[in-house]
Amino acid sequence: MKNALEIFRMVATEFAAVADEEVFKWMGLAMPFISKKRFGKSYDHAIAYLTAHKMKMSGLGDNSMGKVDDALRVNNYHEGDASIGFSVSQANNMSVDAEYALTTYGLQYLQIRRTRIIPIISAGEY
Q1: Is residue 82 included in any domain, yes or no?
Q2: Which of 19, 34, 35, 90 is the most exposed place for a label (fewest CB within 10 A)?
Q3: Count of domains in the chain?
Q4: Predicted confidence band at 123 (pLDDT cuts at 50, 70, 90)?
């Protein structure tokens, strides 16, 4: 995990104040979702980006522009006669990977995964 931590520190500078021990705990949460065999040489990169994504989604890091969590809740609001609309849960989204699109780290993880994992295509999709 040392290499993954080095990559994490390079790409996710907003988490500089988070201690290595805490980052390792988050990496432990990300690791079951990434196969060392399937990701091969990209394994450490995938761990780093998925860890950063999970940390960002949990509200850690630089939140000067607001939390990702906040953006998921409020869809729109009006001032006159005070009306607030809330977003539909990501769980209802048709794409299983929709959550990853919410952070740049998640998008980079998906890019790495696409280069390493070939999806199974059913015969009806040819």
Answers
A1: no
A2: 19
A3: 1
A4: low
Spatial distance between the Cα atoms of 13 and 10, rounded to a whole number of angstroms: 6
Distance, C-alpha 88 to centroid of its chain: 19
Higher pLDDT: 12 or 124? It is 12
DSSP annotation of 78 reads E
> Which domain covers residue 16, as residue numbers?
2-64+96-117
- For 74-97, the pLDDT digits (tens) are 556 556 766 656 555 544 445 678
| Unique residue bearing structure tokens 């790409």 | 11
Q: Of 56, 59, 62, 61, nearest to 105 (Cα)? A: 56
Q: How far apart are CA 90 and CA 99, in angstroms?
A: 7
**Using an 8 Å Cβ cutoff, are 47 and 2 in contact?**
no
Q: Is residue 105 within a helix (H) or strand (E), and if so which, with residue range?
A: helix 104-116
Q: Which of helix, strand or coil describes residue 77?
A: strand
CA 21, distance to chain mean position in Å, is 20
Is there a contact between 73 and 87 (Cβ–Cβ < 8 Å)?
yes
